[in-house]
Specification:
The chain has 2 domains: about 325 residues, Alkaline Phosphatase, subunit A (3-Layer(aba) Sandwich); about 70 residues, no CATH class. Helix 6 runs parallel beside helix 7. Helices cover about 30% and strands about 20% of the residues. Strands 1, 2, 3, 4, 5, 6, 7, 8, 11, 12 and 13 form an 11-stranded mixed beta sheet that branches. Strands 14-15-16-17 form a 4-stranded antiparallel beta sheet, with helices on one face. A two-stranded antiparallel sheet has the order 9-10. The protein has about 450 residues and is an alpha/beta fold.
Amino acid sequence: MNLRIEMKQSLIAILILTTFFFHHTAEAEFKRMPYNVVLIMADDSAADNYGCYGSTYFKTPVLDQLARTGAKFNHCYSSPVCTPARVKIMTGRSGIRNYVQFGTLDRDEVTFGHMMKKAGYATAVAGKWQLHNGDRGTLAPASGFDSYCLWNYPGTGSSRYWNPSIMQDGRLLETKPTDYGPDIFSDFLIRFIERNQDRPFFVYYPMVLVHSPFPKTPDNVSASGITARAKGQALTNFRDMTLYADKIVGRIVSALEKHGLRENTIIIYTTDNGTHRSLSYPFRKESRQGEKAYATDGGSHAPLIINCPGIVPPSIVSDDLVDFSDFMPTIAEITGANLPEIKLDGRSFWPQCLGKKGHPREWIFQYYYPKFEPAAKAHGQGMNGLEIVWAQNQQYKLYRDGMLYAMKDRYENFPIGSGTDSAADRARILLQRALDSMPKRAVKLQPKKAKSKTK
């Protein structure tokens, strides 16, 4: 009897130990699996163009679902136009350290492509490049990407949508009038994911959507022609383009699910700057004007959604500040990649994605040298009178020229004087310290060349 009991107890102990061993071995094996990262950045689309940020006019069902089942940040800020935003997100550094000129990523900058490739990741970029201009510009392979499929790249033409001009891994694609650029880019990335499903990968997708011009999408082609753009259709087409961008995100999600990668891939969605200033659109009970290129809130207030089932808890809504310089250290913390040994301005927001406190920012610093010179009329200073510098938090914004505004004053019509509001005065002190903590002048920006006079 005692022998049978001892044998039974031994079997139970073996079963428990075996279960414990396999559970912890599997858990350890899972922990050793690096996360994949898919970073998607739409072009010219402010936060208020999304359902999950309060819009009822724009329809974004896929992204709304990703926000509901993941993390959504209410205070993410890019830059007012594409180049400074793209350079900042790729390098983790403020434009005051690395901005050269419009359309240029300085060849000496270390990007998240370099970082991820060095970490052993397969890397790919698709969509819009526009970072090769001038003597200091650079190309995708030199920025750490193994494979690319890009518009606005050396050798390409002007068309990004229908009959697009696209360079793919050194070859100019042959396209037809019925070919739609965003489909080509997403198909390229889906194939890349399929090829690299057995190794960690980093995908950077700077979309061409939803930038002007505003042609019809494949879901809205009329009998009058593929690129029909009847007068007065810009806003309608822009709304359809926003929905199509959302659809493409859904395609990528489906591809990850198909290959069993969904629970091991962190999806990040944001945008490079505000909505095109030619567009007026409804938002709740008001009509809003696109503020692309302006330093006002609508020029740089971007959506930020992070999703990964089983890793990022559902329904995380954060009011913490996020700057575009934060993406590089966040991706490093997600993947275990080593940050480059250079001066960075960002900090990781990955803990907040997991529902933890993290290390929230008290302020964001912004340096902006506008291509659209009227944007500098209000606060332009420094080189050529065009440099715009400010610091902000969730409630207030202080320009280097001393002008303070409440963030709720969307179009900055009511400057706040010193001594008129105690909360504003405290914010002024904080934000002035932020301004004082950063370099006083742009390191790489060059003055405009004087125009030669001809007799």
